[in-house]
Amino acid sequence: MIKVNVKKLIKQADKCLELTQWEEAEKILRQVLKVDQKNPEIYYLLGEALCKQERFIESIDTLSKADKLLPNNPRVLHLFGWTHFMNGNSNVGRKLMEKAHYIFPEDIQILCDLAVLENKEENYNQALIYINEALKIDPMNEMAKEVLQVTLYLKESNSKQRNKSN
C-alpha cells in the first residue's frame, strides 16, 4: 500500500464517520495503521470512531497516541477531553477542552461541549459563560442556541428543586 492509498483510505474513513458508519471507519483505519503508525490523523479519526461507538477507554488510548504525535493540537485535545468526560472523568475532560479552547478560542463546538460538561456538573453559571461566548462568535449558531436553551432550562429546574427543598 503506497502513501497515496493511505491518504485515500483516510479520506474514505473520514467520509464513513460523516455518514455515521463508525464500524466501517474503524475497520479502514485499523488497516491503515498497519502501514502507517506515525500519522496522528489516523489515530484521531480512529479515536473519534471509537468514541462514537461509546468505547471510551479504547478511544482515550488511541487519542493519547494522536496527542503524542501532534502535541497541543486543539482538535485532538478537544476530542480527547470529550472522551474523558464521556468516560466519567469530568476534571481531566475539562482541563483538556479548556486547553483546546485556549489554543483555538473561536471554536464554537469546543465552547458548546464545555457548556455541556458544566451542565452535567450542575455548574450552570460557568456553562452560560461558555455558551454566551459561543453566541458572541456566531449569534445564529443553532447548536449554541440549543445548548443555551438547555442550560437555562436546567438552571431554572435546579433552582425550583432547591426552593422546594428549603
TrEMBL record:
<dbReference type="InterPro" id="IPR011990">
    <property type="entry name" value="TPR-like_helical_dom_sf"/>
</dbReference>
<keyword id="KW-0802">TPR repeat</keyword>
<protein>
    <submittedName>
        <fullName>Uncharacterized protein</fullName>
    </submittedName>
</protein>
<dbReference type="Pfam" id="PF13181">
    <property type="entry name" value="TPR_8"/>
</dbReference>
<dbReference type="Pfam" id="PF14559">
    <property type="entry name" value="TPR_19"/>
</dbReference>
<feature type="repeat" description="TPR">
    <location>
        <begin position="40"/>
        <end position="73"/>
    </location>
</feature>
<dbReference type="InterPro" id="IPR019734">
    <property type="entry name" value="TPR_rpt"/>
</dbReference>
<feature type="repeat" description="TPR">
    <location>
        <begin position="108"/>
        <end position="141"/>
    </location>
</feature>
